[in-house]
Amino acid sequence: MKLARPDIFHPRIMLAVDPRGGRHDGADPDSDAGLVAALRHRGLHARRLPWDDPETLAADLVILRTAGGDQGRRAEFLDWTTRVRHLLNPPEAVAWNADRRYLADLQCDGVPTLVGESRRDVTALVFFGAGRSHAFGAAGFDPDFELWDIGRAALRAAAERLSIRIEELLYARVDVAGSAADARLVSLDLIAPQLGFSELDADEKDRAQRRFAVEVTAALERLGLGPLSQRRP
Asked: Where are the domains of the chain?
């Protein structure tokens, strides 16, 4: 897509992916392809790049679509997150969420949590910004509001732990087990969650990806990188 008005500042957005290629952790490359198209549709310059490519450090905004890949490079990955100019989600959220003790933290903060057990009836709740986007899994695409309440409680507790506003989290996936009467948090992914676009029909997938692009635009404005607000010198 050719970007109009070359005199207008167009932030460079990188979707940081696993250097090994394919689907090794975090995001689904096939589903994520639609995110680049959604961002470009809003006039944003975005492309995918391995997280360890030096060019990521020159990007105006980096969006994680990998949790780092190889476990042997985890420390290197976490160090890299602190050197990126603007990272979503922010590096402090990544570091906290990368340690499985985050579940104990959320449990201490009063979030009903399922720790040390496995359940098959899991529903995935996807949030963009501070708002809910879509759901899929055991409870279907329209889960009871009690499940969404668990998701919001987890996000509020995480934001308070990290001393940030919920709006500063571009995305989150909350996996919840059980029904409305006994719902429990199974996991919270703030790093590079699979967003489940392949589970949605075409219209809902399009709406979800547009929501994602809207939240990226909001993040750019919040960071002073609004694509239409700055002219190049």
From this structure: 1-89+197-233, 100-190
